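Hi there,

I know you've been waiting on this one. I reran it after we fixed the sequence typo, so this is the corrected version. Both the input and the resulting structure follow.
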Amino acid sequence: MNPDPRQEEVVSTTATRISHIGVVCVPVSDQERALEFYVGTLGMEKRADVPFGNGYRWIEVAPAGSTTTIAIAPPPPGEPTGNMETGIGLHTADADA
């Protein structure tokens, strides 16, 4: 019997105890500018803004009601920021709004 090539294959049957994605980190060189973009332009909520380390801030933003947040934080020393694909997909019912 030949399988139907149009039929989707099962990708994974591995069980996990992970229930959801918590935080996605996006390295930024200018946290204030990134905060203005995510909150001011996209309308997300600022969920956290706390100092950490040597003068750093940990900032998290998210759409209202979302359990997953985006951390906009400086990268580790020597790592690049900006001009990189994050792979984050945002969904909206009205892209023209």
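Quick highlight: The radius of gyration is 18 Å.

Best,
R. S.
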